[in-house]
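Readers outside the structure-tokenisation community will struggle with the description of the input data as it stands. Showing the layout once, in full, would remove most of the difficulty. For illustration, here is how one protein appears when written out as sequence plus structure tokens:
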Amino acid sequence: CVECGIEPTCLGRCAYQRLVSAQTAAEEAEASLILAHAWLRGGFAEGIPRLLAPLREKFPYQDSLHVYARLLVAEAYSQRGDRDSALILYEEIAQRAPQLTLRAYAALRLGSLYVETHPAKAMVFASQADEELGKGGAPLHRALARNLLSVLIAGQGDYTRAIAFAQEAKALIAQAGDTPDLLWGEPRTIAAAITANLASLYQEKGRLAESRKLYEEALRTAQMQQDTLGIAQAYLGLAQLALQSNDPAAALNQLRQAEPLRHKLPLSLLKEWYRTVAQAHFLLRQYKEAMATYEKLSEALEKELQATLASRAQQLQVLSGLTQREVELKALELQRSRERFLYGVLGGVMLFVLVLLGYGLYYARRRAREERSLRQMIAQQAVQIDEQNKRLTEQAAELQRLSDSLLETIEELKRSHTAAQRLQASMLPPVEKLLPESAIYYEPMQEVSGDFYLLVSDTFSKRLLFAVGDCTGHGVVGALLTGIFSTNLQSFFFQNPQQMPQTLLSRLVQVLSALFGTAKKGYSEGAELVVGIADFSQQKVYLATAGRPIWVSRSSHGLEEWEGGRLGVTAETPVDYIFPTYELDLRDDFVIYLFTDGISDVLNESGKRLGRKALREMMERERWVRRSAHRQKELIVELLRNWQGQAPPNDDRTLWIIPSEALRKYGAERLRAFV
């Protein structure tokens, strides 16, 4: 912008002047689009749909001004969090817009919005943008399309192709020059982001030296542009490289260099920041420092609250500017009154004065139109700013509530293990409500347990993930591992719900290798677990096991035991190890028994173990398998307690009985999938 240099807080002073002086509909439309751009940069997106509504009515859809107005309205919806409305407009532009550049831009934005929730849709739109921009698009836009494809392909695990696309994006952004783009911003800032993405792909492939070189290049570029987000991402990448190279001290040193920037980062990046810090302290066995990381998160929430209040103050300054414009309107009204009086007096004197009077009336009418236009604009802005102030107040109250809640949770964690027990219990799914026909028995040996179970679903893919695991150790140590396994397993599933259970187990092995790869040989922290996925589209149940046997009861086969393999999930498990897999047809009647070794290895008062064989023989002999899941659980729990007698518990216990009918009912009621 020639007048203010794209200053985010100007809110379009020059556009207001052009809007007032516009003589034609096209000039008024161009001024409105400039004003909309200024409001987007200044964070005043609420007023854009109303500002551009007349423009969309005056010009046909084929006109580029109409399509560009729709594009800016979609940007406004996206900025203020109305994702569904933004998606509708972007998809309409991507499919119908006559202008190739605007279609490609809309496809790029759709790919970016769908990249986390629907990777398949994101791939379709990213491919569309890449294909259309290949017909003559600017290097900047082509680089963005190639980089988005690189991110999506990496999410599928094909890092070789992802690196090729990222390298092409880096070569294209080098041709983009230094001219800022109104919609995407500075090319150098985009170049830093593309370089950091390529560095992360090299890191995934184990090419650490090349990855470090690219992270350092991205850091230099971001520092030149004073790009806070780019600088922090580069330092974070270098820190993660240090962790991968078994040097947690160097990782902490990298993050300390960017510590002055931490308060400027968005909460999404702060989460990854603190996770890296916690991993480094954990590897250094600095458990108190790891706990302190959560206190820093509370401080970050406080700072976010202050930033929100500062933004509210800025909007109040804008409101004071509107008051000044009302003063100008009053002066304009006084001037009109004086002109009318003068024209009235001179109108009775001579004929030629009538010509002057006619001109005066024309001028006065024009001023009246300007006055009405300015009054309407001020009224609209006043309403919008009032609404924004209400939202800012609500956001400030919510941030304050979150901050207070987090501080209370941290204090309770310090006071007793009881808080840890409640926290772990909150992480366990309510199986009794979600899968009422199944039965779950869960009994920790101490206040917190090293066992866990999991039940989550994805509506879009119509898949249900369930798992039971037994982590190394008991108490707090075991509970820490259950958190690592449970959260990572859920995260991997939601990243791509189409993955098979054995793929999820292999990715958990990679996480354990990254966390405990620096430990001495023989450091076997990990878990034995069974992961199952009910695919209601394919009408199949897929099972994969890491060290735990599975029992399955079918009328045609009786109560079977399926082997669990020789290895669990630990840092020493080979990354190419093939976990045993099994498959069941959802249309058949069967019962799945998932359990930890605390069920079969319970000790009596003489120190003798019950054993899997004895328990299974008892179930077959007494025909328990023909009872309901809840009645089977009661009988098994009674058997375990009678066997244990007065002996103290020797392990955490988890047993989950899942009939096929329970899965079919869940798919029908919650996922709308009928088997």
Summary: The domain at 13-243 is CATH 1.25.40.10 (Serine Threonine Protein Phosphatase 5, Tetratricopeptide repeat).
